[in-house]
Amino acid sequence: xxxxxxxxxxxxxxxxxxxxxxxxxxxxxxxxxxxxxxxxxxxxxxxxxxxxxxxxxxxxxxxxxxxxxxxxxxxxxxxxxxxxxxxxxxxxxxxxxxxxxxxxxxxxxxxxxxxxxxxxxxxxxxxxxxxxxxxxxxxxxxxxxxxxxxxxxxxxxxxxxxxxxxxxxxxxxxxxxxxxxxxxxxxxxxxxxxxxxxxxxxxxxxxxxxxxxxxxxxxxxxxxxxxxxxxxxxxxxxxxxxxxxxxxxxxxxxxxxxxxxxxxxxxxxxxxxxxxxxxxxxxxxxxxxxxxxxxxxxxxxxxxxxxxxxxxxxxxxxxxxxxxxxxxxxxxxxxxxxxxxxxxxxxxxxxxxxxxxxxxxxxxxxxxxxxxxxxxxxxxxxxxxxxxxxxxxxx
Amino acid sequence: xxxxxxxxxxxxxxxxxxxxxxxxxxxxxxxxxxxxxxxxxxxxxxxxxxxxxxxxxxxxxxxxxxxxxxxxxxxxxxxxxxxxxxxxxxxxxxxxxxxxxxxxxxxxxxxxxxxxxxxxxxxxxxxxxxxxxxxxxxxxxxxxxxxxxxxxxxxxxxxxxxxxxxxxxxxxxxxxxxxxxxxxxxxxxxxxxxxxxxxxxxxxxxxxxxxxxxxxxxxxxxxxxxxxxxxxxxxxxxxxxxxxxxxxxxxxxxxxxxxxxxxxxxxxxxxxxxxxxxxxxxxxxxxxxxxxxxxxxxxxxxxxxxxxxxxxxxxxxxxxxxxxxxxxxxxxxxxxxxxxxxxxxxxxxxxxxxxxxxxxxxxxxxxxxxxxxxxxxxxxxxxxxxxxxxxxxxx
Lengths: 395, 395
Prior knowledge:
The structure is a homodimer.
Chain A: E1 3-7, H1 14-23, E2 27-32, H2 35-42, H3 54-65, E3 69-73, H4 79-84, E4 106-109, H5 116-119, H6 123-147, E5 152-158, E6 173-178, E7 181-186, H7 194-213, E8 216-222, E9 225-226, H8 252-261, E10 266-269, E11 275-280, H9 281-293, E12 300-306, E13 309-312, H10 313-326, E14 333-336, H11 354-357, H12 367-378
Parallel strand pairs in A: 1-2, 1-4, 2-3, 4-5, 5-8, 8-12, 9-11, 10-14
Antiparallel strand pairs in A: 6-7, 11-13
Helix pairs in contact in A: 6-7, 8-10, 8-12, 10-12
């Protein structure tokens, strides 16, 4: 039975990933430092509903499924904690005094500060984003090299690493012919926040590790994720994943649906022609699953663009406007001066074929999915705090 | 009179840069955390001769020239120290209780862990390299943005950021035509150590700052520097810059001359066909001076390849062998298994025109320069510790 280690297993995506692999019968261990919970608390960014702590959620999962997800609460920027996970040394936070007995076959690495606006709030949070994200990645890379060089690292990157160049965005790599000679390079990256830049740096670091030590790495360039639940958790409220609708941790579709439900105008930044690739949370899990069962080879940095559709902000706003109106919500759209520095009208043609090639079937955003989404958010309407929706964090 | 702030002003290049600008009459302030001194002490890597501490050197400089270089001893990964330098708040370490009264017009940023082998010794030093180099750069970027957006940042990068690609290396940027469309990108970077990778990350970070906040940045992609002195300090031993000949902090030409003087075989790693661009320490100062007097514009990341010649390791070894033999040293060359992971025989064609265009006149390595170098090292022959020359730090 394979052992799967999920770093950042308390988060929006880490938690449903843990549940998914546990439901399939794998030995799952999650590690988290509660950064997201603490930041929400400190910045008064209450999620749409309360989420039990990680140990309580795992206890609930055990009650429901009979399966144990081991929990380790700790900070992975500490290299000794990271290394202990590969040396049968770690004592879990739950179940009590249980030891991790086997090296992980696969590590799914979500343990990063995940918000562009958070990274841009001030120099302290910029420093935190850089040092947290890079030290966790470096500690992981060294631990795998030193103790378990055949483990497969699945790392969450972001489409934001590429920015919005005037050429087609390939999947991770590009062949360049220059003055009559050829070379294959990482596709050039130029991001538009400190957070996204930290993810470029992660890629740089892993690319070094792959070349130097023949590590096995899959780097998933993910677009903004939407959705409130996955198949495995939808029938048990106590297992729900965290859902933020604020400007800092809420992704755009999740925010817009929530805004529509309370009649808060959909906040389109600038012209609204910013295009991005998006993905349903169920497809995120599918992508990780397919990457897991079709691993990268030693010495390979395999990069997939993890999106299923592209939309402009205007297109998203219009879809949510229409569905909201059909459901009799008082939806409106408001263009506001862009607080960010980004291109508001640009070429955007990313390729995303690799994950399809290993078997991912896309769930495309449509009116039915959005209707379900409205119905779900409606249940928690009374929890919604209009004051945290938009703060205009400036770049 | 312009104010110049030199971060890392106690180092091999930072110190002669400080002396140069002070000799020209500028107001110079140096900041250093003594990382290099402490690392040499902790790893028993004694430099070729003893160097007075930074305050004593500045006192000596004042005696000789009548000029004051202000000294601040402290760690620039602390953002508050960095920010205080731009707010007339810092109390100097020397002269006593003097205040920095003006914002710097130009900041020359050398305050990084500068050694590839050091970064590869273990995971702790890898983490230190990443967090030190990135946090100092980020703190600098934010301080300039917040307090002095018209200050010119001159940052030392490295040719190692490019690695050894199979195409010509342009100066920082490349135009890519792909599927019929065009975009200008940072030249793709892929380095071969954690240190060099941290420098790629610095470039990523500054490129973000330039686009977001219109900063003025010159990034100097420097090759390995050689030489023991600059014009301004050569007649006063107490003003000499630090000279390492060990594998960790000693650059290759400096090491090879020292090895030749004590009859230690020149250690050529692998085939020895590794090609790099090199530069004389006097030309480093010239390049910084010309960059200073021809600053980048706001919103410009200007990149120069700061080298004057390229050589393979074999070519360097042969030149030093010949000069050593002419001076009757017992020089020999020994090919040893390469402890590093790098291409040993590769295409290498870097461009380096930009600094010439703003007036830098190259000092080319020749037999006379090498003879002077041998004579200089000979004076300190009794200080040379053969045991620290080669340790074989593995990648």
